[in-house]
């Protein structure tokens, strides 16, 4: 018995050693990628910024940065300096990163309006088409121009904070940033985290949840105090005035997000149709998002309804508000899901799997449940359908938890304190 225990301990020691060696190799690759990226920036900036300026920038990126966040109700902006913030995003699609950017812009305008001027820009080569209805529903009109004009825009508008919303397609814009402007990277995506080290010489790095923060292999040249996680949040003040959509069904579930392969599987509709409907008679499921196969399936389904892509925020939230439970079955890692946050903002509890930042958003029995598989999904749905008193209590605690923890005012307050500290010291 003792010999067997010794063998297992030896095997575990070998595993730990192998993991440590693998982590060391990954860190070496990250540092090398970061070094090469720094060299490219130095070459591009040598004539414009001068060697000394570039060295100073690198020194700032690796130096300590002290910040201690105050609660929303306590923090006050004491400087007379107005913050001109340029939100840069590389794509004007309809995704979680774009939605979170607009939520943050609106919150900064709402809570710190006298002290801030926000610009949303998309620097791209060639003609950019985007859905104006989607952006206008947030009261935002993006400014689109060619990438090479970014430097001029930043200078002409006296931008002192460039907040770069990193998507999977993003690249570093360090060489466009003028002296006196702070460069902050906000990472929205789990995809291609190995490219984060290419965003070198930023003044600050923010991940939208702890999961992304800890999964990123940070270059040693970036001081740990200059990289933190700030959990996403969304607004819900306007939702109270939106009536719930008139949806059919005794027990209503649904989901609203990009119905891409990593977040949606067509066989989930078969399962809802064949399994769930037998256990929960009168169950109806509502899909908001674009997927041709799902649209075809729902045409012949008795329990699944397809709304398609929903660009109007008011109608979208009206539909979500009418649900009993938000069904969020995904099959890949991600950050802090905007789809989950929007459901919680409507006081609709969420059932989801333990992927990415879901565990940071969902507290079991408070605003939903994290489940292991479809069997557990069904068990929770059946329980809440049969116990309406428990469902109503869960909805009540969902809203309370959202307002205390996940409302965008808490998120915006932390970002504004970062900007304040960067500009005013």
Commentary on this structure:
- The chain is 44% helix and 16% strand.
- By secondary structure, it is α/β, with parallel strands linked by helices.
- The longest helix has 48 residues, at 2-49.
- The relative contact order is 0.13.
- Residues 48-56 have low confidence and may be disordered.
Topology of this protein?
Blueprint (H helix, E strand, L loop, with lengths): L1 H48 L1 H12 L20 E7 L6 H17 L3 E8 L8 H5 L6 E3 L4 H7 L4 E6 L15 E6 L16 E4 L2 H6 L11 E3 L21 E6 L10 H13 L3 E6 L3 H8 L4 E5 L4 H9 L3 E4 L9 H8 L4 E4 L4 H4 L6 E4 L2 H13 L1 H19 L1 H17 L1
Parallel strand pairs: 1-2, 1-4, 2-3, 4-5, 5-6, 6-7, 8-9, 8-11, 9-10, 11-12, 12-13
How much helicity do the residues have? 40-55%
For the largest beta-sheet, the strand count, sense and barrel status come to:
7 strands, parallel
Average pLDDT reading: 89
Order of strands, main sheet, comes to: 3-2-1-4-5-6-7
| Number of helical regions | 14
Shape: globular
Output the helix-strand order: HHEHEHEHEEEHEEHEHEHEHEHEHHH
Structural class: alpha/beta
Unreliable residue stretches: 48-56
If you compute it from the alpha carbons, what radius of gyration comes out, rounded to the nearest whole angstrom?
A: 24 Å
Percentage of residues in DSSP E strands = 15-25%
**First-to-last CA distance:** 62 Å
Number of strands: 13
């Amino acid at each position: 018995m003792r010999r067997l225990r010794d063998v297992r301990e030896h095997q575990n020691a070998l595993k730990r050693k192998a993991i440590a060696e693998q982590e060391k190799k990954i860190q070496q690759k990250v540092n090398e990628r970061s070094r090469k990226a720094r060299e490219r920036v130095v070459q591009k900036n040598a004539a414009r910024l001068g060697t000394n300026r570039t060295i100073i920038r690198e020194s700032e990126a690796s130096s300590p940065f002290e910040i201690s966040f105050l609660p929303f109700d306590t923090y006050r902006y004491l400087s007379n300096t107005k913050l001109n913030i340029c939100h840069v995003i590389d794509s004007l699609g309809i995704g979680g990163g774009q939605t979170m950017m607009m939520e943050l812009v609106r919150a900064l305008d709402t809570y710190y309006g006298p002290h801030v001027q926000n610009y949303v820009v998309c620097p791209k080569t060639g003609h950019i088409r985007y859905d104006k209805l989607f952006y206008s529903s947030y009261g935002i009109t993006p400014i689109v121009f060619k990438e090479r004009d970014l430097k001029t825009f930043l200078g002409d508008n006296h931008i002192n904070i460039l907040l770069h919303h990193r998507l999977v397609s993003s690249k570093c814009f360090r060489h466009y940033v003028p002296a006196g402007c702070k460069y902050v990277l906000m990472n929205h995506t789990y995809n291609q985290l190995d490219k984060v080290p290419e965003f070198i010489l930023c003044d600050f790095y923010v991940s939208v949840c702890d999961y992304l923060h800890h999964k990123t292999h940070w270059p040693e040249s970036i001081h740990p105090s200059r990289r933190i996680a700030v959990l996403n949040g969304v607004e819900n003040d306007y939702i109270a005035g939106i009536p719930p959509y008139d949806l059919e069904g005794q027990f209503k579930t649904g989901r609203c997000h990009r119905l891409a392969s990593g977040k949606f599987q067509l066989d989930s509709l078969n399962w809802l149709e064949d399994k769930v409907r037998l256990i929960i008679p009168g169950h109806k499921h509502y899909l908001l998002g674009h997927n041709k196969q799902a649209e075809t399936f729902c045409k012949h389904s008795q329990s699944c309804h397809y709304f398609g892509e929903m660009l109007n925020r008011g109608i979208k939230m009206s539909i979500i508000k009418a649900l009993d439970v938000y069904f969020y079955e995904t099959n890949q890692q991600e950050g802090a899901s905007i789809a989950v946050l929007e459901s919680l903002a409507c006081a609709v509890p969420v059932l989801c799997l333990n992927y990415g930042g879901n565990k940071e958003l969902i507290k079991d029995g408070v605003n939903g449940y994290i489940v292991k598989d479809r069997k557990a999904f069904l068990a929770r749905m059946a329980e809440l359908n049969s116990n309406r008193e428990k469902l109503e209590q869960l909805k009540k605690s969902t809203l309370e938890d959202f307002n205390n923890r996940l409302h965008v005012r808490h998120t915006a307050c932390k970002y504004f304190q970062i900007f304040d500290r960067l500009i005013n010291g």
